[in-house]
Each structure stands twice: as structure tokens, then as C-alpha cells.
Design goal:
Radius of gyration: 50 Å
Helix content: 55-70%
InterPro entries: Cys-rich_GLG1_repeat, Cys-rich_GLG1_repeat_euk, GLG1
Largest sheet: none
Shape: rod-shaped
Mean pLDDT: 81
Strand content: under 5%
Protein name: Golgi apparatus protein 1
Number of strands: 0
Keywords: Glycoprotein, Membrane, Repeat, Sialic acid, Signal, Transmembrane, Transmembrane helix
GO molecular function: fibroblast growth factor binding
Low-confidence stretches: 1-65, 208-217, 344-349, 1084-1088, 1090-1114
Membrane topology: Single-pass type I membrane protein
Number of helices: 62
């Protein structure tokens, strides 16, 4: 076994020979340094110090006169200048002192040559191996490999050097340590090295191998040259030489054997000696401590470039074989064995020894919840940080990302900046990236596993330090939740730009491998195995696209109990956390980015702000290719159930959530309630612009597919399948279901076809859609030109654009006019869908109409319009709706009450009308005249009386009067028309100025008013107000209508026994004057109608007398 184990790594003992002199010098100079002990004799009674090794031609000097290096003339000057005096009596101390000088010029050539021959003699005399057996007797017995070595061939010392880390005996340890120091001072003294690497040394021009042609200090450069050649080959650099396998093994073995003490790496020692003093002065040598200290300071500004280069070369060797790191190999030895990280027979030994394989194997154990020693985990963290700091330690990245580095990331190699630059290129933020480079980056991120501890990523750590100190200070340092916390604060005031970039660069790669989020992996590994057929942590499948496992998890996260195969509660919480965070950037959703790459470029290339790309894809849903449309649709459907996935929206809406929706937001399971609450409170004072825009956008997306409204989909799914099959757009589904409900209601069917739960949710959807014209695509498309022309600066929300179009109805294009008219028809039948009315009159509805049904809401408000408690804004809105209702089609109560009267008396008007046109009050004017003639049915008469009373107070409620008298009102009655409160003053003005009216159409309308007022005093509000007390005193027993109360007042005016109120008397006299004016100017038809009423009046004699007197005077 021993021989087999040493063959592949080059047995150093092939030519190491340990002379007795070296052994004795070690024992007496290091183990027993006192002068008294130097006089002890060896077994043969000889004083060991008297033994001498000199130049090659020299023999042993007589035992009585001990030979000393300090006494040699060629070295005396150098010794005096460079070495402390207390070391002169010890040849080995002198040797150590002189050979550690870094510059060639410090030691003379003759002294260098003497030192070389001295060491060569020390390491080539075979006859003193038995002394090593004596000094290391107990150690040899403990180390089985060394105990079995054949003596007399120099193998024993090689074995002891190989296992020096396990030597506990102090004397033996000191001896082997000094021996190692001598051997590693010159590659020509390392046994077998010259023979195995001769050809490669010459090919790579690493220096001469002839004795004497190189001084002691440059010999380390030969090994360093070979190490660099090995690195170039691993990185497949252009022109790299393929080093022979046996030389490769020798190079790696030398690196491994020099891993505990940086003095043994002569090139690095001389390159970094000043840096060691600067950065690691207090670091004890041995066990790789100085290496680690220097590694930690590699990118300090004060670090010399030569030392940094030497350290990088050593790190690259560690990346190829973890045993080149003494501390890592020692700390993780038992864990590697425990978790079988070095016994994979299917893997070549070279790959198995790689640092990356060790890290992946042990990280897998940690993530599975296995116990890995703290010491080993500490070492792993150091080397994971090392990999993240310097991209060049990964040969795959150097090889596959060469062009990306040259094009985008040159000069950024320090502190992980090049790696982050490459990650930025990998995100697609700086052009295309080679797939091999992308894979190399993904592999490196898995090996370094920065998701487990953000501190591994130095660039991220430094960029985000201030954010962590403020936003995440409550989380333990190094906790994986720090990264999650940073994501939660992305795009907030606490985030800084540099941290934002570094964070997104890292998260892009973490998002492509669900295992790299340690919390998600811990909570979901059993679910992923059960539902998504995952493999082990460090096993990957080329067939599995990036992000596929997480997509599988979130598809199961929102399954119902009936659907089965659901995630565990803990896993679902983590999946929701990830979804919330990844919604911030479309690039954090690998499946979405992969399927929508073309569409993102086609439709959304200018959308660069946070969250804009997904919104853009949702806006263009119908235009997307099928693969992209499916994934965007699925994600939107998911958002409809849990809108908290939209983290940016949730942040923007925080004030309104806290004020109005906190109970929904606090629920562990969101079923669309939160979004519904936000929609209902869109126009509260806490609502800000960002939240309003976000909520409206989601509403606009929802209309594209009824599945995007979770509550609507859940409540109405069966109804849609039964009543509205093959309809997908939400607005069409709403219209289909609403029409069904309306028809069933009108036909008084016993059992509604639409279920109760669906009807309830349908009402919510209808009300929401009425708030913004854009939520009704057909109406919006029909009216877009009109909106631009008539309502350019009006906000869409609160139905303001719809209201603007209503107010400008006469100026609308035919297409838009028809759509608005149909909308008003629906609103008049169902006032709850009149968003502006319900919003403006919300408090008045609570005050006056709490017991009224929804369909009677407007009627209730009209009845209370003139109450002193009525809000002025609501009163104004009611007036607008009354104006609208002057078209009989938009007055359902009138239409129902006058169902028989309209065709009986006004058929000629109906015959002139075309479909979808408004008659603008013509039918109502017709019915008013028939009311004056007392020819209407009782129900119709009641409705017309109400209309007459309302329009008598406000001229705007009489569309025919407005059409024909607009100019006359402006000319004759401008002050009355400008009054905020209309109480019939405009009508009174027109009546008074009847003779001044020039337009015939207007004269006719005023005459009609006079005729109507004669029929019912309620139609004459000015007169009715003036005579209210007299009616109460003299006409209380007379019912209103058919001119009865008017006749009663006229009789009272004629009766001298009755004293009327002065104002009433004056107004009655005015009316007689007006009738006289009417008789003078009215057409024959109108005058005869008026005369007929006068002749049938009980006060006809008085009236006729007054009219006759008036006419005579004129």
C-alpha cells in the first residue's frame, strides 16, 4: 500500500540522504542549544560538532578541530554584515540566515557556492540514516507508513517529511523541520525533481539546471516558473505547453509539502518577505498561517505586485488540488472521509482533488443538515471568499470568459469586481455572453455559495455595508437572511446604487439554481424531491432548464386542497418570499426571461425602470408569442391570488394598506382580498400616485382574461363554463353574465341562472369597471379620438373621463355617442354602476337612502335633493343625472309609467327616431302638453308632474328649452342663469321677457311653460312659493293638478273679502299679465289652447277682464 500510494505523487525519498552531521547539528543546535550540552559525545565517543562538511573536494577535518561556516573567509564578510553574532557558532543557524537573503547582491558568489556544496553534502551522504531512526524512534512507530520503509535507501526521511504534520515528538519535529528547510531551498536538492522535470524546465525556459550556474536565491524561480506553466495549461491559454504528467505530480507534490510553512515556497518567500513584515508581522509561521494572512491582504493597495502575483499562483494551485492548502486539508480531513468526498471511483483523481469538488461535496453535507466541523467550515468559507474575490482562480472562467473580460471587464480584477462585471454581462446588461462563460459563472457561484453567507462576496459586502448596518442590523452577521433583507429593501430609500447593482448581479445567478438560496433549500428539499424529482445538492442535470425547480414549486404553492399535491406550509412561505423578491426584476425569473427574450426586445426595450418589463409584457399580452404569453399569464394569475408578490406595488401602497387594508395584508393566505380592497380605496387621501398607477395597471391587465381576477374566477368559474363558454376576456365575461342576470330579473324568472356567489362578485367587478373608461375596452376604443379632443387633461380615475364625455355628449362622434348612450341606459336602470354618482353622493346615500334598493338609489336622492342637509356637490350631481333623464329612454320609471301613453300620443316623434339616437326631450315635451290637456293616464301623469316640478326649478332639466332658448337666456337672463342655485328664476325671466324673445322656437317653449303652469301651480315655483300660505289658508281642501288650485287662488284674488299675501297678489297679477302677453304673441293654436283653459276656469270673467284691459292699454 505504501509503495502504491507514493508512486503517483513522486516519492521524494528516492534520493534524500540524511548525514549524521545534519542530525547532530539539529540535535545540538536546536534541541539542546546550551554550550554545556554541546560537549556531549555520540555513541562512538566522538564530538559531533567536530565533524565537518566543506567544499566537495574536502574530507572530514580532524575531530579535535570542529569546522565552522563562520570561519570560512569567503563568507566571513557576509556573515558579519547579515547574521547576528549569537548564530555564528551554529552552522545550521548560519545556513538559515544566509540562505534567506532575498537579493543576489547581498551574498558574494564564492559564499553562495560554498553554501551550495555544504547543503549538497548534507543531503547526499547515505550512511547516517540510522541516527534518524534513533531521534524519531517513537514517531516512526506511530506512523505505520514510515515504519514499513526499507532502511538504507533514504526513504525514511522522505516519509517523515511527508508526514511532518503528524509528528508530535519535539526533537524529531525540529529535525525534520530543519531538513525540510534545507531541501526546499533549491529545487536541485528535491529528490527526483530534476530528472522528472528536466525537459519541461528547458522547454519553458525556466532556467539552468547545472550546479553552480544559478545561485541559491534564484532556484525558487525555477519551481515558480513551472507552477505558472501548469496554471497556463489548466487555463488553456494560447501557446501553453503541456507539462508531462510525472512533472505535474512533482510540482503539485512540492506545493503540497511546502503548504505549512511559507519559507518552503522560496519564490513566494522572497517575493513576499516585505509584505509579510507589513501585514503579517505577528502571525506565527507554520500550519499555513502566513499564507492565509497574506491571502487576506492580497488586494490591499500596499501589497507589492510581485507578492500578489506569487500568491495568486499558489491560490491557483490550491484550486487544482486542495491539499496544497495545509490548513484546509488538515481541518477537513475527517469530514472528507466521513462524507466520502474522496472515494468516487467514477471520477478521475485530478478532478476529485480539486478545491471546487471538495467545496461542493462538503457544502452538500451542510445543506442536508449534516454536521461538518466548525474548523472545516471556517476554512471552507475562507476559500469560498477567495474564489469570489479573484476570478482568475477559476480556470474555466479564464478560459471561457476571455473575450467578455477583454471587452467589458479589463482592469477590474481586484476584490471580486471582474467577477461581478462578468455577472452583469451574464444578466444581459452589457451585451451577449458566451454560453460556456455563463455556465462557468453559474458553476463558480455554486462552488462559492455566497447565498449562504453574503460576506463571501467581498464586492457585495463592501457595496452593501451601509445598507446592512441600517436596514438589516437586526439580523445576525453572516445569516443567509441578510441577502433576503437586502432584496426586501431593493429600490427603497435605504438602498444605495452600488449595492443595488451588486445584489441584482448575484441574485441573477442564485435565481437560476434554487439550491443557492439556503433557506429555500432547507425548507423545500423534501417537497422538491416529492413533487419536482430533484437530485442532491451538488448534482445538476443539463436537461433541467434554469429555474425549472422553482417554477415547479410555485406551481404547487397555490394549489387548493381539492387539487392535492400541495407544498408544506414552511416551503410555501419561502416560495412566496422568493416570488415577492423576484417580482422586482424580470431577469430574476429564469423561465420568464428565457421564454420572453424575443418579446422583451420587441416590445419592452425602453422599459428600464424596476418592474416595468413585466408590466410591459402584461400590457402586450395579446401580442406575445405563445410560450411567453403562457408564462406571463400564469404569473399574472398567481399575482391575482397573492398581489403581495408585487413587492414594489406593496411598498407604494403601504399608507393605504395600513389605513384601509391592513387586515387583508396581515392574512397568511391572500385570496385576492387585498387587491380588491386597494381598488375600493383607490381614491382615498392615503392613496399616492405610484400606488394608484400600479393598482390601475393591474386592473387593466385583469380585463384581458377573467382568470386574472382570482375572486371572480373562483366565484364564477362554473357559471362561465355553463353560460359563457369560449369567452376569455374578462370584460366580455362580465357583459355575458350581467346580461344573463338582467334578463332573468326583467323576466321575473323563479331561479336565476347565475349563482348567488357569482352575482355577488359580478357586482364588485361591474362597479370596479365603471371607475375607469379604460376598463371597458370597447367604450375606450370607440371614444379615444373624442377623449383627446374634448377631455385631454382629465384623469381617467374616478370615472372622470366618462363624466367629461357625458357632459360633452352633443359634441361626440356618432360611434362614441352611441356607446356613452348605452352606458347611461345601464346606469339609469342600475344607478350603483354610476361610479361618479355613488362616489360624490356616498355620504348622502348613507344619510337618506340606506333602506333603498340599488335600482332606486337615484330616485331616493332626487326626492331628497332640496333638503337642507343635502351636500351641494351631491345636489349638483343629481341635477346632472336629472338632465340626462330628460330623454325618455334614460328614464326607466317614466318609460314604465307611460308605456301606453307614449305610443298613443307621441308616435310621430318615435317614427322619426333612428336606432341609438337620443330624442333630447321631445317625447317628454309631448307628454307635458298632454298633461296640460289632462289626457294622460294617472301613472304617467304622476311622473310628468314630477318632471314638470323639477324642470320648473331648473331650466337645465328641460332639454327643449335649452336647445331653443340658449341664446335668449344668454341675452335676456345672464345673471339668473349664472346663479349657483337654480330656483326657477331663469324660467321667470323668460316669462317676463316673453315679448322681447326673438326666436320663434324659444317663444313656443315659453308659451308651453305658461300653459303647463296654468294646469298646475306646482309647475310655477315662483308663484307657488309666493302663495304657499294663501293656498294653505284658502285652498287647503282642493287637491293639486288640473288647474284646481290655480282657479282657487284666482277666485280668492277676485273676492274682495279675501286678503291675500301681498307677494302672492302681485305674482297672480303678473301671471294675468303674462297670459295677456301670450294671447298677443302666441300662434293661433297656442292661444286657443290657452283660451280654452281660461274659459273653463271658474275665474274666467276676471281673467278675461284683466286680459282685455291689458290689450286695450297696449
Amino acid at each position: 500500500m505504501r509503495r502504491q500510494a507514493l508512486d503517483p505523487v513522486m516519492k521524494m525519498a528516492d534520493c534524500i540522504r540524511v548525514p549524521l552531521l545534519l542530525l547532530l547539528m539539529c540535535i545540538f543546535s536546536c534541541v539542546h542549544p546550551s554550550g554545556a550540552e554541546n560537549n556531549k559525545l555520540n555513541a562512538n565517543g566522538e564530538n559531533p560538532v567536530n565533524l565537518l562538511v566543506g567544499p566537495p573536494q574536502a574530507a572530514v577535518i580532524p575531530r579535535s578541530t570542529g569546522w565552522k561556516l563562520a570561519e570560512e573567509a569567503v563568507c566571513r564578510d557576509d556573515l558579519t554584515r547579515l547574521c547576528p553574532k549569537n548564530s555564528w557558532n551554529n552552522n545550521l543557524s548560519v545556513l538559515e540566515c544566509l540562505q534567506d537573503k532575498k537579493e543576489e547582491t547581498e551574498i558574494s558568489t564564492e559564499c553562495n557556492h560554498l553554501l551550495w556544496n555544504y547543503k549538497l553534502n548534507l543531503t547526499t551522504d547515505p550512511k547516517f540514516e540510522s541516527v534518524a531512526v534513533e531521534v524519531c524512534k517513537s514517531t516512526i512507530a506511530e506512523i505505520k507508513e514510515c515504519a514499513s520503509e526499507e532502511l538504507g535507501k533514504g526513504y525514511l526521511v522522505s516519509c517523515l517529511v511527508d508526514h511532518r504534520g503528524n509528528i508530535s515528538d519535539y526533537q524529531c519535529n525540529q529535525y525534520i523541520h530543519k531538513m525540510t528547510s534545507i531541501i526546499f531551498s533549491d529545487y536541485r536538492l528535491i529528490c527526483g525533481f530534476m530528472d522528472k522535470c528536466r525537459e519541461d524546465i528547458n522547454t519553458l525556459h525556466c532556467g539552468s539546471i547545472s550546479t553552480g550556474e544559478k545561485d541559491i536565491h534564484s532556484q525558487g524561480e525555477v519551481i515558480a516558473c513551472l507552477e505558472k506553466g501548469l496554471v497556463r495549461e489548466a487555463e488553456q491559454q494560447p501557446g501553453a505547453h503541456a507539462i508531462k504528467d510525472e512533472c505535474k505530480k512533482s510540482i503539485m507534490r512540492v506545493a503540497e509539502l511546502s503548504s505549512d510553512d511559507f519559507h518552503l515556497d522560496r519564490y513566494l518567500y522572497f517575493s513576499c518577505r516585505d509584505d509579510r513584515e507589513r501585514f503579517c508581522e505577528n502571525t506565527l509561521a507554520g500550519e499555513g498561517r502566513v499564507y492565509k494572512c497574506l491571502f487576506n491582504h492580497k488586494f490591499e493597495e500596499a501589497m507589492t505586485e510581485r507578492c500578489r502575483e506569487a500568491l495568486t499562483t499558489r491560490q491557483k494551485l490550491i484550486a487544482q488540488d486542495y491539499k496544497v492548502s495545509y490548513s484546509l486539508a488538515k481541518a477537513c480531513k475527517s469530514d472528507l472521509r466521513k462524507y466520502r468526498c474522496s472515494v468516487d471511483t467514477n471520477m478521475p483523481r485530478a478532478r476529485e482533488a480539486r478545491l471546487s469538488y471538495l467545496l461542493l461535496c462538503l457544502e452538500s453535507a451542510v445543506h442536508r443538515g449534516r454536521v461538518v466541523s466548525g474548523e472545516c467550515q471556517g476554512e471552507m468559507m475562507d476559500y469560498r471568499r477567495m474564489l469570489m474575490e479573484d476570478f482568475s482562480l477559476s480556470p474555466e472562467i479564464v478560459l471561457h470568459c476571455r473575450s467578455e473580460i477583454e471587452s467589458h471587464c479589463s482592469g477590474l480584477h481586484r476584490k471580486g469586481r471582474t467577477l461581478h462585471c462578468l455577472m452583469n454581462v451574464g444578466r444581459g446588461d452589457a451585451g451577449a455572453i458566451d454560453p460556456n462563460c455563463q455556465r462557468a459563472l453559474q458553476t463558480l457561484i455554486q462552488e462559492a455559495d455566497p447565498g449562504a453567507d453574503y460576506r463571501i462576496d467581498r464586492a457585495l459586502n463592501e457595496a452593501c455595508e451601509s445598507v446592512i448596518q441600517t436596514a438589516c442590523k437586526h439580523i445576525r452577521n453572516g445569516d443567509p437572511m441578510i441577502l433576503s433583507c437586502l432584496m426586501e429593501h431593493l429600490y427603497t430609500e435605504k438602498m444605495v446604487e452600488d449595492c443595488e447593482h451588486r445584489l441584482l448581479e448575484l441574485q441573477y445567478f442564485i435565481a437560476r439554481d434554487w439550491k443557492l438560496d439556503p433557506i429555500l433549500y432547507k425548507k423545500c428539499q423534501s417537497d422538491a424531491s416529492r413533487l419536482c424529482h430533484t437530485r442532491g445538492w451538488n448534482e445538476t442535470s443539463e436537461m433541467m432548464p434554469p429555474g425549472a425547480i422553482f417554477s415547479c414549486l410555485y406551481r404547487h404553492a397555490y394549489r387548493t386542497v381539492e387539487q392535492g399535491r400541495r407544498l408544506s406550509r414552511d416551503c410555501k412561505v419561502e416560495v412566496q418570499r422568493i416570488l415577492h423578491q423576484r417580482a422586482l426584476d424580470v431577469k430574476l425569473d429564469p423561465e420568464l426571461q428565457r421564454r420572453c427574450m424575443t418579446d422583451l426586445g420587441k416590445w419592452c426595450s425602453e422599459k428600464t425602470e424596476a418592474g416595468q418589463e413585466l408590466e410591459c409584457l402584461q400590457d402586450h399580452l395579446e401580442d406575445l408569442v405563445m410560450d411567453c404569453r403562457d408564462v406571463v399569464g400564469n404569473l399574472t394569475e398567481l399575482e391575482s391570488e397573492d398581489i403581495q408578490i408585487e413587492a414594489l406595488l406593496m411598498r407604494a401602497c403601504e399608507p393605504v394598506i395600513q389605513s384601509h387594508c391592513h387586515e387583508m395584508a396581515d392574512n397568511q393566505i391572500d385570496t385576492g382580498d387585498l387587491m380588491e380592497c386597494l381598488v375600493q380605496n383607490k381614491h382615498e387621501k392615503e392613496m399616492n400616485e405610484k400606488c394608484l398607477v400600479g393598482v390601475t395597471h393591474f386592473q387593466l391587465v385583469q380585463i384581458k382574461d377573467f382568470r386574472f381576477s382570482y375572486k371572480f374566477k373562483t366565484a364564477c368559474k362554473e357559471d362561465v363554463l355553463k353560460l359563457c363558454p369560449n369567452i376569455k376576456k374578462k370584460v366580455d365575461v362580465v357583459i355575458c353574465l350581467s346580461t344573463t342576470v338582467r334578463n332573468d330579473t326583467l323576466q321575473d324568472v323563479k331561479e336565476q341562472r347565475v349563482s348567488v356567489k357569482c352575482r355577488k362578485q359580478l357586482r364588485v367587478e361591474e362597479v370596479e369597471m365603471s371607475e375607469d373608461i379604460r376598463l371597458d375596452p370597447e367604450l375606450y376604443d370607440s371614444c379615444q379620438p373624442d377623449i383627446k379632443r374634448l377631455c385631454p387633461n382629465i384623469n381617467y380615475g374616478n370615472a372622470q373621463v366618462i363624466e367629461c364625455l357625458k357632459e360633452n355628449k352633443r359634441q361626440l362622434t356618432q360611434r362614441c355617442h352611441q356607446r356613452i348612450f348605452k352606458l347611461q341606459e345601464v346606469e339609469m336602470v342600475d344607478p350603483e354602476l354610476d361610479y361618479q354618482l355613488m362616489r360624490v353622493c356616498k355620504h348622502m346615500i348613507r344619510r337618506f337612502c340606506t333602506e333603498s334598493e340599488g335600482k332606486n338609489m337615484l330616485q331616493c336622492l332626487k326626492q331628497n335633493k332640496n333638503s337642507e342637509l343635502m351636500d351641494p356637490k351631491c345636489k349638483q350631481m343629481i341635477t346632472k343625472r336629472q338632465i340626462t333623464q330628460n330623454t325618455v329612454t334614460l328614464n326607466p320609471l317614466l318609460r314604465k309609467a307611460c308605456k301606453a301613453d307614449i305610443p298613443k300620443f307621441c308616435q310621430s316623434i318615435l317614427n322619426k327616431a333612428t336606432a341609438d339616437t337620443e330624442l333630447e326631450g321631445q317625447v317628454i315635451s309631448c307628454l307635458k302638453l298632454k298633461y296640460a290637456d289632462q289626457r294622460l293616464s294617472p301613472d304617467c301623469e304622476d311622473q310628468i308632474r314630477v318632471i314638470l316640478q323639477e324642470s320648473a326649478l331648473d331650466y337645465r332639466l328641460d332639454p327643449q328649452l335649452q336647445i331653443h332658448c340658449t341664446q335668449e337666456i344668454s341675452r335676456l337672463c345672464p345673471e339668473e342663469a349664472a346663479a349657483q342655485e337654480q330656483t326657477g328664476q331663469v324660467e321667470e325671466c323668460l316669462k317676463v321677457n316673453l315679448l322681447k324673445i326673438k326666436q320663434e322656437g324659444c317663444k313656443k317653449e315659453v308659451l308651453n311653460m305658461l300653459k303647463e303652469s296654468k294646469a298646475d301651480i306646482f309647475v310655477d315655483p315662483v308663484l307657488h312659493t309666493a302663495c304657499a300660505l294663501d293656498i294653505k289658508h284658502h285652498c287647503a281642501a282642493i287637491p293639486p293638478g288640473r288647474g284646481r288650485q290655480m282657479s282657487c287662488l284666482m277666485e280668492a284674488l277676485q273676492d274682495k273679502r279675501v286678503r291675500l299675501q301681498p307677494e302672492c297678489k302681485k305674482r297672480l297679477q303678473d301671471r294675468i299679465d303674462m297670459w295677456s302677453y301670450a294671447a298677443k304673441v302666441a300662434p293661433a293654436e297656442g292661444f286657443s289652447d290657452l283660451a280654452m283653459q281660461v274659459m273653463t276656469s271658474p275665474s274666467k270673467n276676471y281673467i278675461l277682464t284683466m286680459i282685455g284691459r291689458e290689450l286695450k292699454d297696449r
